[in-house]
Every structure is written in C-alpha cells, then in structure tokens.
Amino acid sequence: MVRRLALLWLSGAALRLSILAVPPVIALIRTDLRMSATEIGLLSGLPVLLLAVAAVPGSLLISRLGSRATLLGGLVIAATGAALRGADGSAATLYGATALMGAGVAIMQPSMPVLTREWLPSRIGFATAVYTNGLVVGEILPVWLAAPLVMPLVGGSWRLELAIWSLPVLLIGLLVMLLGPATAHSHVKGARLRAWWPDWSDPLVWRLGVLFGSVNAMYFATNAFLPAYLNATGRGDWIPAALTALNLGQLPASLAILPIATRLERRAWPYLAASATLAIAAIGLVSMSGAWLVFCAGLLGCGAAAVLVLGLTLPPLLSEPANVGRTSAAMFSISYATAMLVALASGAIWDVTGMAASTFVPIGLCALTLGFSALALRGAKQLR
C-alpha cells in the first residue's frame, strides 16, 4: 500500500510541476521574446485550455490501453513538451511545446481517479487525498525553488529553467513503469471498451463539472488577476506575500484532510462550509488591505484545496468502475472550460466598468455555484 500511495503522490505532483514552472520566469520570457500582455495571457491560458480539450481523449486511451499505460503516456508527453519549451528562441515553439505539455497533463488527469479505485479500492478517499497533496506540492515547488535554486543552477536561463522541470516528470514516469502494479481486471477492461465517451446527458456529470469548475475558476482567476488588481489599487508591494499565501495556503488544508478523508467521503457539509469560506475570502480580497488581505488570500487557497481534495474523490465514489474514467474526463472538461470562461468574464467586466474590484464579481459568484452544486448533489442523494 505504501508503494502505491507513493506512486500516486508522485503522479499527482507531476500534474503541476511543469505547468507552474512558467510564472517565476514570465517576466524574463516577456522581455526576451518581446511578447504583449495578450500573448502572455495566451501562454498562461494554454495549459488550462488543453486540460479541458484533451481530457476526453484521455478517457478513450484509458478504455483502450488501461489507466496505468495512459498515465505513463501522459507523463512522457508532458515531459517532452516541457523540455521543448526552450528549444529555440521563437514564441511559436514555446506555444507549441506548451500545448503538447498541456495535452500530456490532460491525458493523465482522468487516469488518476481510475488508479485510486484500482490500486486502493477500500481507501479511495485517503488515496485521493494523498495524490491531491502531491498535486498541491507540485504547484508550490516550482515557484518556491525557482529563485534560490533552479535559476542559479541554470545560469539565469529561463529556457533551461523550463526544461529542467521535465526531468522529475520523466523520472516519475520511469518509477510508475517499474513499480506500478498492473491495472484493471479483464471484465472491467471489457466494459471500458464499450464506454469511453462521456454520457453528457447524465446530470451527475454536470453537477460534478460545475462543482469542480467553481473552485478551479476561483483559484486560477485569482492567481491571474490578483497581481493586476493590487497594482491598480496602489498595493503592488503586497503582491509577493498575497500570491505566496494563496498558493501555500493550499498545503495545510490538503494535509489536514489526509487523516479524516474517509470520514468526509460523500458528505455535503464540507462543500457548503467551503462555499461560505471562499465567499468571505473573495470579499476580503477587495475590502481588506495589508496583513488581512494576505490572510484572505491564504483563506481562499485553503478553501480551494479542501474542495479539490474532496471533489476528486467523487467520480470513483459515485460512478460504476467502468465509468470512472469517462465521468472524470467529462468533469475535467467542464471544470477547466468553466475556469477559462470565468477568467474571460473577470477581465471583461474590469474593461467594461473600469473598476478593478469588479474583476472579483465572477470569482465571488463561483463560491455560490459551489454551494448550489453541493445542494444539488445532496438532493439527488449523491451526497449526504
């Protein structure tokens, strides 16, 4: 069990390691390639877009190859794309390699809920909490280690900084290949071959997609717009502290849930509590300043991580074994598409109104949709 949990944790980290390598060097990329703000926005949004578009093909691969082989393929594709991002000096290569990397990560994502059910069927909640903790650490490490360790190691080259994060992803793939147990019994494989395309008419798919999309949208949109908002309101000196709190705030929640994950399975009240917490945090970001603003950023990160951990347990808990992959793929497609739409809405409302604080209106509304989604799942007897 320890070996399986370790592989799940490492695979969870690989979902984010290469994606979050970009923010620490984004200023260097923009200067070197003379990119506009729109081009930088496209570069930042490409992985999220691919997470939405390529999730369903991931379900197809699971049905044909099995979850372990799909995870391995995604790791190799993500590592290859990550390594190629700094291959030459053109923005086109950077975009293309980023899209390839995002496709690899998108293929991996629906395989993770399937693997938790196959490797640890009696500990789904705990196994999900473990790999989600790895995902959170994978978001933190590239940001945390860039300035003190990685950039000095590569002589200040952003190209090598991006490429070097392909190495741990490739190493994780090697460990999964050598140590990962075989997956899927033959009767489950046969069922998968008949069912890989998501059942878009299933209300569960949309409830899960909106629930997971609400928290995804809050996290990604806040990361995107909080620095610009603080600059516009004359509080630019608080950007590093606020962003650090937003991302590090995820770690305590993911650790706290680990020992109690099984007891929280299919409970509605944690989502409702997180909905209220996230709404308070979003209001605090536009009404507080100084240390209280940093606290609200950390609170938002904490609430988002709690929903992330618990939300990822739902596809394997609520779906038949043969449907976990396609239900997960549909959930990821809807959720990341929602994140993109909310980010666009947040930018548009700022442009239309000219008020920086208005960018948090769509973000705050996502806290409400999270609560309504949890109530809808409870009404359908899918949560208690």
Task: List the keywords.
2 domains; mainly alpha; 20 helices; globular; Growth Hormone, Chain: A; 384 residues
What does this protein structure show overall?
This protein is an all-alpha fold and 384 residues long. The protein has two domains: 1-197, Growth Hormone, Chain: A; 198-384, Up-down Bundle (Growth Hormone, Chain: A), CATH 1.20.1250.20. The protein is built from 20 helices and no strands. The protein has helices at residues 2-14, 26-33, 37-53, 55-65, 67-84, 91-108, 111-119, 124-153, 158-164, 166-179, 186-194, 203-232, 239-248, 250-257, 261-264, 269-287, 291-311, 314-318, 324-353, 360-379. The longest helix is centred in the middle third of the chain and has 30 residues, at 124-153.
